[in-house]
């Protein structure tokens, strides 16, 4: 009887071992499939991130190229003929406005001089006078004004 008990115990142990082995095999397969799924997901995500990073780098290079072109264009426009003259004109206009506000008596004299200059400008650019004025330089009173300033000081 003792032998029958051992045989029955061994048979039960073999059945339990077979059941546990099949469960363990199934769990391993599930874990392997899950690991494979995660590997696939990670690979897909890395590919997407690599494509996104590549696009960002390309866009960054394009923006750098556009920025450089704009910088060159800005420098060219800043050095464009007439730009410095316009800036100088704006500075002189501000100075004349300040003198008009701060100096009594300057306003009317300035307005009269401005009107005379505008009239002369209109005459120079209409009719035969423009031809003569453009080709024959006329001396200015600048040297006379400088000489008077030096003598009165």
What sequence of helices (H) and strands (E) makes up the elements?
A: HHHHH
Instruction: Classify the secondary structure makeup into a structural class.
Output: mainly alpha
Global geometry: rod-shaped
Distance between the termini: 143 Å
Cα-atom Rg, whole angstroms? 48 Å
Q: How many helices does DSSP assign?
A: 5
Mean pLDDT: 81
Overall strand count = 0
Looking at this protein, list some descriptive labels.
153 residues, mainly alpha, rod-shaped
Q: How would you sum up this structure, described in words?
A:
This protein is mostly helical. Helix content is 88%, strand content 0%. It is built from five helices and no strands. The longest helix is centred in the first third of the chain and has 77 residues, at 2-78. It is rod-shaped, with a radius of gyration of 48 Å. The termini are far apart.
Give a quick rundown of the structure.
The chain is mainly alpha-helical.
Topology:
Layout: H1 2-78, H2 83-102, H3 106-124, H4 129-135, H5 142-152
